[in-house]
């Protein structure tokens, strides 16, 4: 046989032990490993294992063992694409991430032996779950923590979903290499794989696969683990947004429960949900204040809201619309069922005010009114709505040059910005606004009163700020929205 050092060089490439090549043959002698006195090689070079066995007349290694594995080639191409992306860290927006995850999952599934009785179909998550139980030296603490975290996640319900969540978590934590390395040293779990029809059970393929997983530990990932509710169904992740609103008696969302998911099937006109301009018909409520509503029972959202009565609310919404504006495909079967049961149901593409109004400006994802700020006047110690009758003409008589502003009616406050520079001119929470309204004879001008903060000694003096809108309808809409804000923030007062 060749020197031991040459075999050591060969081990990382072909993944088998030189001692196996010198095992006693059927006649008690040794099977010759090297044909024709050639020096040893590997990976299909002259003198390799397959070549020598053919010359010795023994059965050749099956092509599934000796040939190349297409999945490994595809996985390598995906890794190179991720590296070429150049962004750090890699996020869910990476174009080749989904392909990488799909191929990785195919490799982990390929060749898994199923139970003879067939009561439970095996998946890669099942051996991942057992990996920490096979820890005899106490070195799998990080893996154990990850497995426990996946098992405690209420957004994934199946072995497929849990396996996918584990892979995303392992990429974030740089533990894919360690996971595969521990599997390679756990014969009891490796027996799950058919050596003739798998990557993980084939010693020739296991080594390059493990090397690629070690390469992945050198890449920084920052994947959003909260977007997990559809991992049971697809690697394609939805668009998620957070909707925050103030305490109110009614939100104005009509809900439909379907297969453990809560769909918004209607947004009531004039409701808080419509005014906030974020909720769209067809979206899914995934969480309320951090409480997962995956696999929700009928009425569960109402129960959660009842417990949170009087508190600010934060909804995590899954959008029906994907990044490119098309329908998020995993929702198709759900929406078909809803349309059959509710013939009038239609997906909402934009907030109602965006569809109806052209005099609005979009900034930082919010719709704002484009108005003219006409000025302000001191109205004394009383800030009731009665003062608007005299305050508005008082400002108009000043004839100050108007300033074009962006007027944002938010959930808890009013913000006024200069349109050109986006500089904040005024910022008033609703409890600081004493009144809002307009004169009957000037239907495009409205005003609101606030306490004068310029002079601390005169904190109970009021200022009246006057604005001009594009139409009487827009003027009335703004007044009503501020008035709704008064009602919603009475909890804070």
Main beta-sheet annotation: 8 strands, antiparallel
Please tally the helical runs, counting DSSP H or I stretches of 4 or more residues.
18
Estimated helix fraction = 25-40%
Radius of gyration: 33 Å
What is the terminal-to-terminal distance?
A: 89 Å
Percent strand equals 15-25%
Average of per-residue pLDDT values: 81
Describe this structure in words.
The chain has 493 residues and is α+β, with helices and mostly antiparallel strands. 35% of the residues lie in helices and 18% in strands. It is built from 18 helices and 14 strands. The strands form 2 sheets. Strands 7, 8, 9, 10, 11, 12, 13 and 14 form an 8-stranded antiparallel sheet that branches. It starts with a helix and ends in a 5-residue tail after the last helix.
Explain briefly what this protein structure is.
The chain has 493 residues and is α+β, with helices and mostly antiparallel strands.
Keywords:
8-stranded antiparallel sheet; 18% strand; 18 helices; elongated; 493 residues; alpha+beta; disordered N terminus; 6-stranded antiparallel sheet
Question: What is the topology?
Answer:
Blueprint: H1 4-14, H2 18-21, H3 49-55, H4 63-66, H5 70-85, H6 97-109, H7 124-131, H8 141-152, H9 159-173, H10 176-184, H11 187-190, H12 203-216, E1 240-245, E2 253-258, E3 261-267, H13 272-276, E4 284-288, E5 291-292, H14 300-307, E6 313-318, H15 332-341, H16 352-356, E7 360-363, E8 366-380, H17 388-398, E9 403-409, E10 413-418, E11 424-429, E12 433-437, E13 445-451, E14 462-468, H18 472-488
Antiparallel strand pairs: 1-6, 2-3, 3-4, 4-5, 4-6, 7-8, 8-9, 8-14, 9-10, 10-11, 12-13, 13-14
Helix pairs in contact: 5-6, 5-12, 7-9, 8-9, 10-12
């Amino acid at each position: 046989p060749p020197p031991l050092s040459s075999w050591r060089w060969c081990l990382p490439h072909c993944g088998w032990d030189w001692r196996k090549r010198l095992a006693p043959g059927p006649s008690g002698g040794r099977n010759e490993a090297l044909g024709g006195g050639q020096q040893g090689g590997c990976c299909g070079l002259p003198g390799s294992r397959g070549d020598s066995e053919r010359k010795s007349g023994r059965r050749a290694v099956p092509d599934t063992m000796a040939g190349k594995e297409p999945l490994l080639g595809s996985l390598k191409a995906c890794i190179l694409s991720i590296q070429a992306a150049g962004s750090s860290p890699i996020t869910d927006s990476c174009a080749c991430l989904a392909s990488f995850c799909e191929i990785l999952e195919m490799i982990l599934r390929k060749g898994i032996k199923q139970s003879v009785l067939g009561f439970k179909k095996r998946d890669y998550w099942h051996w991942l779950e057992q990996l920490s139980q096979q820890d005899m030296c106490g070195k799998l603490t990080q893996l154990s923590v990850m497995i426990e975290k996946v098992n405690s996640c209420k957004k994934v319900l199946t072995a497929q979903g849990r396996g996918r969540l584990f892979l995303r978590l392992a990429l974030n934590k740089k533990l894919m290499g360690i996971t595969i390395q521990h599997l390679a040293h756990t014969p009891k779990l490796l027996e799950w794989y058919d050596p003739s029809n798998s990557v993980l059970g084939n010693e020739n393929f296991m080594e390059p696969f493990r090397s690629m997983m070690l390469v992945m530990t050198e890449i920084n990932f920052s994947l959003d683990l909260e977007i997990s509710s559809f991992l049971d169904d697809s690697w394609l992740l939805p668009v998620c947004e957070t909707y925050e609103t103030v305490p109110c008696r009614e939100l104005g969302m009509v809900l439909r429960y379907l297969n453990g998911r809560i769909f918004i099937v209607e947004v009531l006109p004039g409701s808080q949900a419509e005014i906030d301009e974020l909720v769209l018909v067809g979206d899914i409520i995934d969480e309320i204040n951090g409480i997962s509503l995956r696999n929700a029972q009928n009425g569960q959202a109402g129960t959660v809201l009842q417990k949170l009565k009087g508190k600010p609310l934060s909804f995590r919404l899954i959008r029906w619309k994907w990044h490119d504006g098309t329908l998020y495909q995993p929702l198709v079967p759900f929406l078909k069922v809803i349309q059959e049961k509710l013939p009038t149901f239609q997906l909402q593409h934009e907030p109602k005010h965006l569809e109806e109004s052209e005099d609005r400006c979009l900034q930082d994802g919010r719709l704002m009114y484009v108005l003219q700020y006409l000025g302000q006047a001191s109205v004394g110690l009383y800030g009731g709505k009665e003062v608007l009758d005299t305050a508005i003409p008082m400002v108009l008589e000043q004839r100050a040059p108007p300033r074009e502003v962006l007027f944002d009616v938010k959930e808890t406050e009013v913000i006024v910005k200069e349109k050109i520079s986006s500089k904040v001119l005024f910022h008033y929470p609703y409890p600081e606004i004493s009144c809002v309204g307009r004169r009957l004879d000037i239907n495009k001008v409205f005003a609101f009163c606030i306490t004068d903060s310029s002079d601390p000694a005169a904190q109970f003096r009021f200022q009246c700020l006057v604005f001009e809108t594009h139409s009487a309808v827009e003027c009335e809409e703004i007044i009503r929205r501020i008035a709704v804000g008064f009602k919603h923030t009475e909890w804070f007062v």
